Amino acid sequence: TKSSGLGACEWLLVLASLFFIILTLPFSIWFCIKIVQEYERVIIFRLGHLLPGRPKGPGLFFFLPCLDTYHKVDLRLQTLEIPFHEVALDSVTCIWGIKVERIEIKDVRLPAGLQHSLAVEAEAQRQAKVRMIAAEGEKAASESLRMAAEILSGTPAAVQLRYLHTLQSLSTEKPSTVVLPLPFDLLNFLSSPSNRTQGSIPFPNSSKPVEPLNPKKKDSPML
Question: Could you tell me the pTM of the whole model?
Fold first, then answer.
């Protein structure tokens, strides 16, 4: 009685229950045997007292229907929704027989100042990445333009074709625009350093002095 904690009256009830089960065999055996799954364990309480020994299971276990009550415990991992806490410790769960395997944080409440700082830092990183991509694109475009300029400078015919293509695109995109094309010979003549004299354009017979206008010849006989 000391091991189970039962009194004299409780032991009399246990003996009476066992005697009744023996008298009603084999029908009573169906009410006294239960099955426990592999992932479960059973704790038996007899007249409110916890029976000594290890939990029952897995397999079959015997109990007294009138005096015993049992509780099944699931040993599988369970996912629980824990309310909001400032601090959560797993050391306090050991005394309850619970082992915390993993905790996933779903919501973190940060101060407004820290949120602003993180947002500014993320925006600065994004802007820096955009500028790097734009700079790489401009570098690639400048390399392509340099190669195209080298190719066009070596072939005058390609320059003329490019010139005609530009004129055609201008007339297509802006029909109201008036374009006055200049010959390439004149452009080469104007761009040559030997023909530039202080930024002025030489004209034929420019060295011939200009005769001054005689005021006496205002009255022309043709008038």
Answer: 0.39
The answer to whether 43 touches 55, Cβ cutoff 8 Å, is yes
pLDDT tens per residue across span 77-108: 887 777 776 666 767 777 777 777 777 777 77
| Beta strand 59-62 pairing with 33-36 | antiparallel
Q: What is the CA radius of gyration of the chain?
A: 52
| Local structure of 61: helix, strand or coil | strand
**Token duo for residue 132:** 């790097």
- Give me the residue spans of the domains in the chain: 8-74, 110-170
Q: Report the alpha-carbon distance of residue 77 to residue 211 in Å, rounded.
A: 114
The CA angle 44-47-49, to the nearest 5 degrees, is: 60
3-class SS of residue 137: helix
